[in-house]
Structure formats: structure tokens, C-alpha cells
Design goal:
Elements (H helix, E strand, L loop, with lengths): L2 H19 L15 E5 L2 E7 L8 E6 L5 E9 L24 E4 L3 E11 L6
Antiparallel strand pairs: 1-2, 2-3, 3-4, 4-6, 5-6
């Protein structure tokens, strides 16, 4: 096998592995604000639209389904620290149970906890 064939084979293998582990965001529905970010995996996910204002002690977050339906909206604070998270801390958000997103789990073992629920979809509207 030539050096170029080996490099081509290695490149193809790396591309294949990268494609399998990455999940791209679906097309953004019209009802989902442009500021919302997608977080999900092969089994689905959600759109997260949160405020990151320094003068606010909480983050206002709305969570939308893949298809754009509003699931949950609340004010959240960082568990144990009673403050809002920064945009830089808001990494890989996820929730355990929709529509009851009373906690948003973030990278680095951080958790946002709902302190004031503003909207919660019922089972009929999921």
C-alpha cells in the first residue's frame, strides 16, 4: 500500500467516525427565535432560548420542541449559587422530562433550577 493510499484510508476512517458521532440541529421552525440554540442527540432534543443579562439574578428560558411548540418557560437560577449563568456557562443544555423542565442540566455538572414557572405545556400540546 502506498503512502497516499494509507493517508486516504486514514482520512476516510476519521470522516466516518466524525459523521457518526455528530448530530446536526434540525431546521429551525419559524416559531423558534433566532437566538435559541439546539441541543440534542440521535433520540431528539430541544431548542433553548435564554436571556443572559448581567443585571438579572435569573435566566429567563423558553424551551421549544424540535417542531417549534413551546414546552416550558421559566426563570432559572444556578443551583447552590442563586445566580444566573453566563452565556459561556450555558453549554450542552438538557432536561430529563418534557414538559416539566424544572431543571436544566449543563456541562460541568451545573444545574439551573426553575424558581418561577411562567408556562408549562400540557400533554395534549406536546
Amino acid at each position: 500500500m502506498t503512502k497516499w493510499s494509507l493517508l486516504l484510508l486514514l482520512f476516510g476512517a476519521l470522516q466516518f467516525m466524525g459523521c457518526r458521532s455528530r448530530v446536526n440541529a434540525p431546521t429551525r421552525p419559524g416559531a423558534v427565535p433566532l437566538s435559541a440554540i439546539w441541543s440534542g442527540g440521535a433520540d431528539g432534543g430541544a431548542w433553548y432560548d435564554c436571556s443572559f443579562l448581567q443585571e438579572e439574578p435569573t435566566n429567563l428560558c423558553a424551551i421549544y420542541s424540535e417542531k417549534g411548540a413551546l414546552w416550558f418557560k421559566a426563570r432559572y437560577e444556578l443551583k447552590g449559587e442563586h445566580r444566573a449563568v453566563t452565556r459561556e456557562e450555558f453549554l450542552q443544555p438538557g432536561v430529563d422530562y418534557i414538559p416539566h423542565a424544572t431543571e436544566i442540566y449543563l456541562q460541568g455538572r451545573k444545574t439551573l433550577v426553575a424558581v418561577k414557572i411562567l408556562y408549562e405545556a400540557d400533554a395534549e400540546h406536546l
